[in-house]
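yo, Tat pathway signal sequence domain protein is done. seq:
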Amino acid sequence: MPGFPRRGFLAGTVAAGAAAQLPWLTAQASAATRQTSAAPAEVSLGWLEGGAPAEVPGTTWGVPWPKGALPADQAFALHTDGGDEVPVQTWPIGYWPDGSLKWSAHAVGPHTAADAYRLTPGDGSAPAAPVTVREDRRIVEIDTGVIRVRIPRSGSTLIESISRDGVEIAGAGELILIRGDSAEDGDEGSSRRERFVGRVGTVTVEQAEAVRAVVKVEGVHRARRGGREMLPFTVRLYLYAGAENLRMMHSFVFDRDGQEDFVHGLGVRLQVPMRDQQHDRHIRFGGQDGGLHAEAVKGLTGLRRDPGVEVRQAQVAGRPTPPVDGFPDNVRTRMHLIPDWGDHTLSQLSSESFQIRKRTKAGHGWVPSATGRRASGLGYVGGISGGLAFGLRDFWQRHPTQLDVRNAATETAEVTVWLWSPDAKPMDLRFFHDGLGQDTYEEQLEALEITYEDYEPGFGTAEGIARTSELLFWALPATPTADRLAAMSASVSTPPLLTAPPEHLHGAGVFGDWSPVDRSTPARAEIEDRLDFLFAFYRDQIEQRHWYGFWDYGDVMHTYDADRHVWRYDVGGYAWDNSELGTDIWLWLHYLRTGSAEAFRLAEAMVRHTGEVDVYHSGPYEKLGTRHNVQHFGCSAKQVRISTVANRRYYYFLTADERVGDLMHAQIDVDQTFLTLDPSRKVRGDVYEPDPQALSIGTGTDWSALAVAWLTEWERGGDPIAREKLFAGVETIPQLPNGFYTDGERYDIDTGRYHLPADHGISVSHLNAVFGQVELCSELIDLLADSAFEEAWLQYCRLYNATAAEQEAELGESLGNLNLGQAHSRLTAYAAKRLGDERLAERAWAEFYGGAAGYGPDLDWSVTRIEGPRTLNPIDEAAFVSTNASAQYGLAAIQNLALIGDRLPD
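structure:
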């Protein structure tokens, strides 16, 4: 295989909606001439949460197809279960190696939702008023047929205007950052604050089709004075045909070391013209479970003199009140004496409490209005002639958050959606201890023996971590009804998503070895019960332990402390899980086989967290992830096993999410990081200097993370170098003397090929296969039909849990005492299935039920209620549970059932 220049090859792009002009996918045939599987005549789709949502602000989803069944440019039609045709936009997001369609993405705009839909190959209908995009050197203008949005190409304005029927509803949209120089510790702290605004760098129209348009805006926050810059951002704006709303995905990178720059507030701000009389202007905030806080700028209820029931009811409902000159004289002549409440704030500073307060205007005192537990994140300001609704997803889960309305009594109200509330303590991302004297590798390795923390000076930095938030804005012709606002709140909190059932996902042959839930025998039912138990336990632990917060939401803890009845949140490497041992993959496979909305939403939150917070997107550790620690960024083990695309690709293909696509694409040259950071630096017994043509990149956790990034890029139709490097590894790993068990192998970064220096031996780690390699190799073997690679992987699968004698007979020596026996039962099962080996199938189930380093046969699969003075809050405890074991038990159970479920012992 020819070499290619060593470089970052991020220039290769994956164009959304691009036609399948992809000759490098295969050298044999095109999708049009190779149809090896029959496509389903139709696919039934339903809403993830079940039933028809009351509000559909537009949605996008993905559907897989069997290999060879459909050409890459296949068109589709969408009908409701009642037969009505729904305009749909379609584009390919994944291809099989023969060029046929593997994943199609679909988008529909706002419509009256049905309970179920049918997706069929064939020409679909276009919307009556398609989205139009007009762009010139200064502006990008998008018209949905209902609203028109203008996006400047430069400057500090993110959104110039949002108009409806020629009337501007909102404008002067900008990104706001409040930076301080202190964390304000103690009772005498004072921090100098300065305001930054987002400065637009580039604006790219990524998609401009009939149903959906997508615009990406990139830039950086810049200080109002002095021009200092920090926190680069990427904002995507989504608009659908017929929509009166705008969806925003807001991503930023924390590009500071956290020692001197403290975020006191981070948000999105718009100006809203106010055209109505003050008593016909309304403020709304969504509460919990459909609750609504509704007020007017100038209240006409509760007065000493009654304006009349018609007036009062109209104002409370948000309808136009009768003309003022028809009010009773004892009210009409005193209207100027009723205060105008122009400023309103809802702040959610914890997951358990929010407060609403208001004041007349700046310079005057705040008055408490209401309190509650968990706000939906929706607000509204406007009047009978129009207004703006605004919402932030995961509002209480990602506290501290805040919604501000200012100056609503004037000609222009100001709305700010705070991703980080300025009422909260500043964002503090400093490392949590002073190093404890761990100045040498020996001292740092010693710490692993007591707190399991892998510390190294300078490595516990937050510089380069990121966060993405989802916002919605509606440009409305009048104040919505309470029922409409409740529906909008629900769509903010839980965006409607169409999904295919597990049977179709499984029948398409995607994502390796799994199968839909099957309770047909007592033994199967018992395993299914335990899988459900583990999922429900973690779902409930998130709530009971309050695993919420801006940087934390989406992760779970690693290990339990039964003495304190808490998870080990403060003990080194036992705290946050950070994707350790495939937690993300377990949750995604649980969703795929069950179709559970709860599983999807938990996995979705995890992918949003682990792909952003646990991975560096700039700085010295860019593209690497961080091992589990008290802080998500704290551990000095910066490795590709955490930044691996294996944890992201499920969500991408099920939703066509562009941000996750960016994160995956960024990983295609992650092998470059091995030139600057050796993951084995603390435990090496040899002298090692990184050589581009002889890099120490193992064939386990390292190569699998590289290979899954290349596989996904190849599937998406991206840079062909990804395919070349993937194939190079597939070709050369089997050529090593002991395949995946070879020690001392070296990797050529120019070609992706492995070779062997003079000295070599046998090596294996219990971690090699448990960060996505099992799933990767299964997919590669099915995709490529490479017999040598399959044989090498089957050797690894057969021998890992084999007897010492069997290992010695084949490798020349035994592999010693290996860990994670239960987890590796799925490797034995894979070999049993591929080889048709009955003995291996029996061995696999014996390994699974044996429970080595997992969950053994004598466990009591139940929880114990702990309450009273033994714990702060009542909790359900299962002291035997650890997240490593849960993830690997879950994956082993799922894959064993899929592979050798017919050999499951009674």
